[in-house]
Protein: Cytochrome bc1 complex cytochrome c subunit
Organism: Streptomyces tunisiensis
Amino acid sequence: MKKLSARRRHPLAALVVLLLALACTGGLYAVFAPADKAQADETAQSLTIEEGKKLYTVGCASCHGTGGQGTSDGPSLVGVGAAAVDFQVATGRMPAATSQAAQIPDKPAVYNQAQIDQLAAYIASLGAGPAIPTEEQYGPEGADAAKGGELFRNNCAQCHNFTGKGGALTHGKYAPSLEGVTPKHIYEAMLTGPQNMPSFPDTTLSEQNKKDVIAYLNAVNGEETESPGGLSLGGLGPVSEGLFAWVFGLGALIAVAVWVAARTAKAKKS
């Protein structure tokens, strides 16, 4: 007991006790602490990718190849990114009914959003590409609809019409109407350039520019938007307006000319 008491009074005794306490505390924490968050997230992501691969094998591999490398019936998906998958699958364009059509139309989605996220995660794992945008990126906060209108008319109206009503292209292709398309999918379309559409990465149209374009489309296609000129004739611009003038305006002139000629002929006979 005297020896033990003497050791307690040793100058390093307090330091030794402190080190032992810290070691015990660290050991207990390592044993009982929850799994590291990063490791848990990585495990969850791995499971998502695995589920996405299963869905891909069943519904996509026949056209795009077992590893997304593409085939004669479908392009490679390596590097297209999660945003392209979310757009194509959520709008029902994929899976396509046929790969021989001039353009693949939108239709009701085959997969639910959870499955779409799994497919997107798997395709994203094949190669780096655009990620699915967040609500902060495509939301209305801080957007300038007037600036968006200018950008839309300069970059998009040639195909989609100045109010986004869509229009015809060559060889059976067309620019679809943007009415009713969600802001998220409009953003993804600009980001990835589906089918005949060119892509507008952030180096071409910044994140703020894309938000502005979406704000403009929401403004011109909103439920409360009214045409200041009366009937909008589909918002198709001078083509439909010219056709209206040609059919009804010229038709009225011909009718008047026939009526005048008939009256003149009748007067001469009298």
